[in-house]
Amino acid sequence: MFYRQTTKTAVRSLLANKSRSVLTILGIVVGVASIIIIVSIGHGAKKLISNEITSLGSDIVWIEPGKQPKGPTDFAGALLSNTLKIRDIEALKNKNNVPNLLNIAPAVMVPGAVAYMGETYHPLITGWSASFFGKVFNIQPKSGVYFGESAIQSREKVAVIGLKVKNELFGESDAIGKNIRIKDKNFKVVGILPKEGQIMFFNIDDLVLIPYTTAQSQLLGIDYYNEVWVQVKDINKIDQTILNVKQTLREMHGITNPDKDDFYVLTQQNMLDQVDGILKIITALLTSIVAVSLLVGGVGVMNIMLVSVAERTREIGLRKAVGATNENIVHQFLLEAIILTIIGGLIGVLFGAVFAFAIISAFSHIAGVSITFTFPTSAAIIGIAVSGIAGLVFGIYPAKQAAKKRPIDTLRYE
User: Fold this and answer.
1) Cys bridge to 204: 176, 196, 210, 404, which one at CB 3.0-4.6 A?
2) DSSP three-state, residue 280
3) Which of 273, 274, 254, 272 is closest to 263 using CA atoms?
4) Element holding 198 (H helix, E strand)
5) Longest CA pairwise span in the chain (Å)
6) CA distance 160 to 145
7) Residue 371 near residue 50 (C-beta atoms within 8 A)
């Protein structure tokens, strides 16, 4: 009965000062909404990347140069490593070394732009095997053909381009048979990819494929690869295949201690685990930054409640004069703070969900990807709970200040 009456009194007081109540919860609303947006977008990104990785099938294994990264900051060092070379590819192709290997394709990243008749565009240029690309992603050219193994062996200057690249450079005119320039070298366009959008970590529409041998010898002047893709025959033997790959590369590199490996092998599950780990770290960092706004919001609650205590000095005196105890006063002001912050948390969850949905929808439309909005129930519960705790913690001081006031002084207050 006591708490019900105290709650009614607290609610009446809050409703009597609507503007002040709104200002009090503003910081809480922003903080909780930001957390909902960050977590929701993180969940959507994780689901998108996971779907893209699993869509490739579990028969793909990636061999990466350098030591296996232990955290996000280690990836740059791995990308700059030059430990995977042609002799390694030849050894892996040997059926005696890796019996379960079906296909293998090294890849080389080529920084730079492509140009045609004064038009310049910056796509993702990759030295790779076009036929391997087509098989793995199950994509056939919209027009033209993929360059084959003979083009790779003879280091031909040919290219397969994405639809966006074609539109940016050629517009409505036909691109097949025409030359584009990459690092002052002419490459003949032999194929155009259909509109596919984002797959895994790159946009197919924004892609330029050239033979990896040509990229190495004529554009970059290197003899190593940035990545090697391996397709296995029998996915039930994938663990044995990974062991065979590691044993072969260790033998080629003269490595006897596995801790000294200058390469690492990733499976579909490894990729999913890495993506999950990276997104968790990023989400945690962003959430910790946003949590500061909740702290600021809590301080705002305390300041506004202190102002409220000063404004309501005569009210406090009257309540004490008719028998209210210090405990009654503390309970009322604490309840006001908690009710305000919980309401702020609820509004923050609602606004956060609406804005997250809008951001995800807009990004999906602009980027041409399909990101699913997921309401983060756990984040919403935590946000509301933290809001209530903030009200309790930051409401204690104003409540005690109110309770300390002497009835005789409060009744004389003007």
Assistant:
1) 196
2) helix
3) 254
4) strand 198-199
5) 100
6) 8
7) no
Q: Are 112 and 125 in contact (CB under 8 A)?
A: yes
Total of domains in the chain: 2
* Contact of 330 with 400, CB cutoff 8 Å: yes
Give the integer Cα–Cα distance in Å for 212 and 219: 10
Pick the most confident of 140-149, 358-367, 393-402. Answer: 140-149
What lies within 8 Å, CB to CB, of 9 at 6+ separation is 332
The whole-angstrom distance between residue 10's C-alpha and the CA centroid of its chain comes to 42
Mapped onto helix, strand or coil, the DSSP state of residue 219 is: helix
Closest C-alpha to 275, from 49, 40, 93: 49
Looking at residue 99, what is its pLDDT?
Answer: 93
- Both tokens assigned to 230: 């391996």
Is residue 48 located within the same domain as residue 106?
no
Which amino acid, residue 206? D
Same domain, 72 and 219: yes
Question: pLDDT digits over 67-122, tens only?
Answer: 876 655 555 555 567 889 999 999 999 999 999 999 999 999 999 999 998 889 99
Which residues have CB under 8 Å from 119's CB, separation 6+? 168, 169
**Amino acid identity of 156?**
E
What pLDDT, in 10s, does the model give residues 14-70? 555 666 667 777 878 888 888 888 888 888 877 777 776 666 667 888 899 988 766
**Over 70: is that where the pLDDT of 132 sits?**
yes
Domain that holds residue 49: 2-53+274-412
Give the per-residue pLDDT at 86: 92
Q: Which two tokens stand for residue 103?
A: 């296909």
Classify residue 148 as left (phi > 0), alpha (psi -120 to 50) or beta. beta
Last residue of a domain, one of 246, 266, 286: 266
Same structural domain for residues 188 and 322? no
pLDDT value, residue 7: 57
Q: Are residues 259 and 280 in the same domain?
A: no
Q: How far is CA 224 from CA 70, 113, 368, 374, in A?
A: 23, 22, 33, 42
Q: Which H or E run includes 366? A: helix 326-367
209 and 181 share one domain: yes
pLDDT at 196 over 90: no
Q: Please check whether residues 196 and 71 belong to one and the same domain.
A: yes
Whether residue 143 sits in one domain with residue 64:
yes
User: Which of 17-31, 187-201, 218-232, 339-353 is predicted most confidently?
Assistant: 218-232
